[in-house]
Design brief:
Elements: H1 8-28, H2 34-50
Helix pairs in contact: 1-2
């Protein structure tokens, strides 16, 4: 499997994976996961707006 780090969707996916993992850690320790999910969604959405999709 080859990961192309130049693709905007790959960066958004990475943000989603990291956000999910961080949310699981927060949940595991009994903390509120909503701020983590909100911040991750904000960052992923910002990347979706700011980074252009590559043209193949």
């Amino acid at each position: 499997m080859k990961i192309n780090w130049h693709e905007a969707s790959t960066k958004r996916g990475l943000v989603c994976v990291v956000t999910g993992l961080l949310a699981v850690v927060f949940w595991w320790f009994g903390k509120d996961v909503q701020p983590v999910l909100a911040a991750g969604t904000f960052v992923a959405g910002g990347l979706g707006v700011a980074l252009p999709d590559s043209q193949v």
